[in-house]
Amino acid sequence: NRQVRLAARPVGLPDASTWNYVDADVPEPADGQVTVKVAYVSLDPAMRGWLNDVRSYVPPVQIDAVMRAHAVGHVSASNSPDFAVGDAVSGNFGATEYAVADAKDVVRVDESIAPLPTWLGALGFPGFTAYFGLLDVGKLKDGDTVVVSGAAGAVGSLVGQIAKQHGCTVIGIAGGAEKCAWLTDELGFDVAIDYKSESVAKALRQHAPKGIDVYFDNVGGEILDAALARLRLGARVVLCGAISGYNATEPTPGPQNYLSLLINRASMAGFIVFDFAGRYGEAAAKLGEWVADGKLVAREQVATGGIDKFGDTLLMLFEGKNTGKLVLQVS
Ligand code: NDP
Fold first, then answer.
1. Could you tell me if 131 and 266 lie in one domain?
2. pTM, whole model, 2 decimals?
3. 153 CB near ligand 1 (under 6 Å)
4. Same structural domain for residues 58 and 197?
5. Is 150 near ligand 1, meaning CB less than 6 Å away?
6. Strand residue runs (E) in the chain
7. How do residues 200-244 score in pLDDT, each as one tens digit?
8. Is the CB–ligand 1 distance for residue 240 below 6 Å?
9. C-alpha of residue 150 to centroid of ligand 1, in Å
10. How far is the CA of 99 from the centre of ligand 1 (A)?
11. What is the Cβ-side half-sphere exposure of residue 92, based on CA atoms within 13 angstroms?
12. Whose CA is nearest to atom 33 of ligand 1?
């Protein structure tokens, strides 16, 4: 049972010294528990934050502990009446080939609706994050002009597609021509701005001449600032993430345009998807329906090489090497 454990807290980007790859016994389920053979682990930008020894919305991963990670797989041993061997499940199983979990913390997934990796993407936390972040926190209205950063990633690609279903004008911001082409040609975004090759401020002036109603921010930094400068009266800014600063070793310069919130009577709200835990069922039903009807493209990028590739695969998020939801195939 190969596992990824936290060896040392990184400064800046995680590297080889961050992780220990160890062999452990396959755990036996106690009463009310199951053992899961992990098939895919999720890679999430938030993992970088979980490595810091600071107070946050979840406690930090402890040194020598198995790295926290959402995962999907199959029950390989059961000591619970709720699950049988072979059931497909998801949960917070960690970066490991086998995990035990209390049955109450394990969620059944249906491989006839979508393959396992999708349950870590459109039908998992990225889906819920896009759904509640845009519709509840962002208070989306039909016809809004919506701008989303990190647009070709797991959350951003879904945000733009859901906004399109509401008749919105959707502008995505992503790194590179290939990602931008995917947004406009395959996902139906109206415009894609390549922040690596053009001025975001200038492009927003051109493509959102009347301003932005909802800005869904996944990246923070200069891109947030460019979007703030274009807010429309009554705009909503959704603070979902700020990946541009996750590996910073110096304090990052703050936005210059935040007074635009005041001038435009706009609101900027942060949220954690866990706030909506009581409504995951609603989101899963809707998202599942949209995927089944072909209204939502659920794209995953599956990295291979097994659990030993965890550290290298995580870095892909910070280098922008993923399009859609990044997962690692474990077995
Ligand atoms: P993604 O699939 O979007 O992967 C990360 C992407 O971020 C990369 O592909 C890269 O795309 C982009 N990126 C990396 N570095 C930078 C940078 N310096 N500037 C701009 N873009 C950068 O990840 P997720 O969809 O899983 O997460 C997106 C955001 O949502 C993250 O900030 C995450 O922390 C947050 N989140 C928040 C939740 C909540 O409850 N609030 C829940 C889940 C996620 P590119 O090539 O375009 O640069």
1. yes
2. 0.96
3. yes
4. no
5. yes
6. 2-6, 19-23, 33-42, 71-78, 88-91, 98-102, 107-108, 145-149, 169-174, 191-194, 212-217, 231-239, 267-270, 300-303, 325-329
7. 999 999 999 999 999 999 999 999 999 999 999 999 999 999 999
8. yes
9. 5
10. 27
11. 10
12. 241
Task: Specify the number of domains making up the chain.
Answer: 2
Query: Residue 140: which CATH number?
Result: 3.40.50.720
Q: Rounded distance, CA 38 to CA 143, Å?
A: 42
Q: How far is the CA of 30 from the centre of ligand 1 (A)?
A: 37
Q: Tell me the CA–centroid distance for residue 310 and ligand 1, in Å.
A: 17
Do 232 and 152 have their domain in common?
yes
Same domain, 59 and 96: yes
Does 251 share its domain with 146? yes
Question: Do residues 74 and 88 make contact, with C-beta atoms less than 8 angstroms apart?
Answer: yes
| Ligand 1 pocket mutation pick from 58, 219, 243 by most atoms within 8 angstroms of CB | 243
Q: Is the ipTM reported for this complex over the cut 0.90?
A: yes
